[in-house]
Amino acid sequence: MPVADMVTRMKITPITRRMIIRRSIAVITITMTTTTKTTIITTVTMIITTSIATTSIITAIPMLMTANEPALDRSGMTEREAAALYRLLTWLSPSFPVGGFSYSSGIEWAVEAGDIIDAVSLQNWLAAMLADGSGFCDAVFLAQAHRAAESCDDGALRDIAELAAAFVPSRERQLETSAQGRAFIEIARSAWDCAGLEATIAGCEGMIVYPVAVGVVSAAHAIPLAPTLHAFLHALTSNWISAGSRLIPLGQTDSQRVLAALEPVVWATAKRAITATLDDLGSATFRADLASLRHETQYTRLFRS
User: The whole model's pTM is what?
Assistant: First the structure.
């Protein structure tokens, strides 16, 4: 095989190539005439130069692509979106210490009275609470508080917080929403503080109930309203199902079936609440309101509401 072909086919470094060429030229010089020597040396030199240049170009292309092209995000989310999801999953998790496990929103009395006896009746009860009761009202308050905090409208935020604190049907329900709201704010201050949060909280000027607290904190952290609203309603529904599963009782599979069946109700409630105004507030779940009142004098109780 000719020397030139051997050099171009071998995968060797440029320095090694030069050494091979020099040795080849030395051998050729001993055995060839002057004219032949010049021709071979010129040919080999051109081959090496072309090979080195090609190698340099091939090596440089990936470096240029790496420098100019943005890094691909394999998770499919930006850093801000990932942070928002992480915080919502944390804040609205059953392990977040707001004490939601100790409240049933009147479900305990409904079980005692025989209104809720199985998974189907629990699902129907909660569907009404979500669509036409406290679930929808809390979602409206969250959305309104989020928008007011986002736009730094302290006057509107103060009015929303005051109305939300008064918009509860019983003493125990007020205890439930105010205690969870206070705990949520205190933990957010100590563990999840951010610029502007303290000023936004101060703008409420009084009691901050749970949905308002979630709306205010999520707005301060620049978390969009839509995912916040869906996460809040999911957490609310999950807590109600947890209470019902302990009171009826229900197994874990039946509890998950109820949660799955309520998914479209949660979505529809969030869709209504995100476009609703304070004038759209209202409740038609009279039996659930009565349950929260009757629970205050119930003889045996596991829950605080």
Answer: 0.76
